Amino acid sequence: MTVDVLLVGGGGREHALAWKIAQSPRLGKLYIAPGNGGTRLVGENISIGVMEFEKIAQFVEEKKIGLTICSMDNPLVSGIVDFFQARGLRIWGPTKVAAQIEGSKAFAKQLMREASIPTADFAVFTNHDEALRYVHEKGVPVVVKASGLALGKGVSICRTLSEAESALKEIMLDRVFKDSGTEVVIEEYLDGEELSIHALSDGKTHVLFPVSQDHKTIGEGDTGKNTGGIGTIVPVPWVSADTLKDLDARVVKPTLEALAARGASFAGILYPGLKMSSQGPKVLEFNARFGDPEAQVYMRLLKTDILDLFEACVDGTLQRQTIEWETGFTINIVLCSGGYPDEYKKGFPITGIEEAEKLPGVVVFHAGTTFDGTLKTSGGRVLGVSAVGATLKEALDRAYEAVEKINFEGKYFRRDIGAKALAA
Ligand SMILES: Nc1ncnc2c1ncn2[C@@H]1O[C@H](COP(=O)(O)OP(=O)(O)O)[C@@H](O)[C@H]1O
Ligand SMILES: [Mg+2]
């Protein structure tokens, strides 16, 4: 029996998910709302926005679509899953209460404190003067975070008191993140390597993906402003199977249990971002969805039919499902618009993707692209160039050869993705 699927979103993550879903022998038709210049190659783009729940549900009902998939923060935190479930429609993703683990950093920190899950020491404030006093008391470096969703821009790593003061002013007084900044989390700065964990859960059983590592800052050597994520590797060679087991026991399992105990049982992907600090692993935050670009490397390595996994989550039968991975490594290099993560121009024609994809092991996922007869840039993160290899070095060499084939005005990428892991 085939199933028609609608995927909500239009970033690099969604192209990667759509690319993998399209390989399922059980797929009928695939729709992506709204999709991008790449998803149109593997399914049909529908011009409905990700927050237009009523329109999406109507389309699903009209076309008798059997499964909707949502792996985006804003619709999940706003309750797209509850909206669909109330209409008797099958949807993959966590409910609104469960997605709070991402939607409210204050909620996530409190849950971690109560469940003894290792995380940076912190305090939560709604009053600006109190927050300011706390920062002065604690000193720098310190990390200031808007509690709500902020398009990846709500976190400031403050190395001076004046940086911390301006972060608090922007969030709490100037309200640049609107209600997302009503609560502020101020936490201890942690040193160490960052890791991404992904756990697929049906609310009762969970299974861990291999550990991946994203690169967050725009500049080489982990310098400059934070981005949404600009290059990823999987698996991380220095993380052992025992370490992953330990992270499951200390982080993933207790978090899923704590959510369930609060009546917020979690189905979907739970993605903790971690720091492997000198005081042991610490959770930076939780996401209630696939990472982007992490999804792009996972989809290249996943052997199992992803529709089987999604449906097992929705049906609560994950315990009976096996999950298999290809051997080897995958790397993703994000090609950005010059200027990103600050202001950038868009609308530039893109060339060379076909040439890049002729290289062994290379697949190019679209993020900020649009097609109007010509393929053009339409976002900060434009393309994710991925390559698989038997070794990390082989994957890296292939991906870096591929990025040179692709051109658009202002193209920027980091030349050191995976370099630290390779040297470790
Ligand atoms: N306590 C911390 N110490 C050091 N770096 C941090 C800390 N918290 C966050 N960061 C850095 O800031 C990035 C973004 O923070 P995160 O909590 O993941 O928020 P979001 O992804 O919602 O912007 C992290 O990926 C990490 O690089
Ligand atoms: Mg993050």
In short:
The chain is of the alpha+beta class and 424 residues long. A 5-stranded parallel sheet has the order 3-2-1-4-5, with helices on both faces. Strands 10, 11, 12, 17 and 18 form a 5-stranded antiparallel sheet that branches. Helices cover 33% and strands 26% of the residues.
Describe the structure.
With 424 residues, the protein is α+β, with helices and mostly antiparallel strands. The chain has 3 domains: 3-95, Rossmann fold (3-Layer(aba) Sandwich); 127-182, 2-Layer Sandwich (Dna Ligase, domain 1); 193-423, 2-Layer Sandwich (D-amino Acid Aminotransferase, Chain A, domain 1). Helix content is 33%, strand content 26%. The strands form 6 sheets. It has a 5-stranded parallel beta sheet, with helices on both faces. The radius of gyration is 21 Å and the shape is globular. The structure holds adenosine-5'-diphosphate and magnesium ion.
Secondary structure elements and their pairing?
Layout: E1 3-9, H1 12-21, E2 27-34, E3 44-45, H2 53-62, E4 67-70, H3 73-77, H4 80-86, E5 91-92, H5 96-103, H6 105-114, E6 122-125, H7 128-138, E7 142-146, E8 155-158, H8 161-173, E9 184-188, E10 193-196, E11 199-202, E12 206-208, E13 213-214, E14 217-219, E15 223-226, E16 231-234, H9 241-261, E17 267-277, E18 280-287, H10 294-301, H11 306-315, E19 329-336, H12 353-358, E20 362-366, E21 369-371, E22 375-377, E23 381-389, H13 392-405, H14 419-423
The protein binds adenosine-5'-diphosphate and magnesium ion.
